[in-house]
Structures are given as structure tokens and as C-alpha cells.
Amino acid sequence: RIVTLEWLKSSSRIGEWLYFNKFEPKSLLNSNPSLNIYRKYRQQKKSIELFNQCGLIYITSIVHQRQLLLKLITLLGGNITINRNRAQLIVGQSSKILQIIVHPQVNEQWVIDSIKMGKCLLTDDYLIDNDNNC
Description:
Layout: H1 5-14, H2 26-31, H3 33-43, E1 56-59, H4 66-75, E2 79-80, E3 89-91, E4 105-106, H5 109-117
Parallel strand pairs: 1-2, 1-3, 3-4
């Protein structure tokens, strides 16, 4: 939960945790639509299945913050594979030039932006061109 400092102060004054809904920062929730999406899932006690429609996701070994991305994708319904050939989506630059790339290969920002938007984004703007080592 995201709450204001006033929630902590008020809870401390009365000696018990107050109900948090009155202390959520409305301006933050209104300015960030993905927070409302995740909040609704939590209220409905549903698991968040943001990446479950992406198929098997392979994260290359040279991705910055690899462990964090693995956790985020998994927590948000993604299925990770350690076999590049089985993947439907590859995240990150490859350490060697691949002759044939069958499935989209995207940069790490695709994961972050998808989480921010609360939906699995199209890969077109995030594609990596391995021939040029971009």
C-alpha cells in the first residue's frame, strides 16, 4: 500500500493501525494509472497476470538488473525459460550475434514500461537489432 505520512502519525497517536483507504495519496493514484490497475487487482484478491500472455520469456545473461527483472516478470504472471530456443520473447542484448531471431528481442525498458502502463506493450518500439549490436 502507498499511504501518506499522516497515516503513520495518526495511527501512532491512537496506538493502532488505521484503515489506509483514507490516507492514500489521491494525486499520486490519479497521475499514475497503473497504480489503480494494481490496486484493483489487490482489492479483488486476484493475482496480477500482466505478462502471462507473452508466452515463455528468456532474459539474456548480460541484462542490467537481471535478477530484479526475473522477479518482476514472475510476480506479474510471466513464465521464464532458461532455454532461448523455447522463448517467445527475448529480453536484452545477446552476448553473441544470432544468425536467426525468430521471436521479438526487446530491450529491458519494455518490461519497465509495460509495468508502468499496467499492460503488456507492443514490442515494436523496443526491438533490438543484434546485427548492429545496438
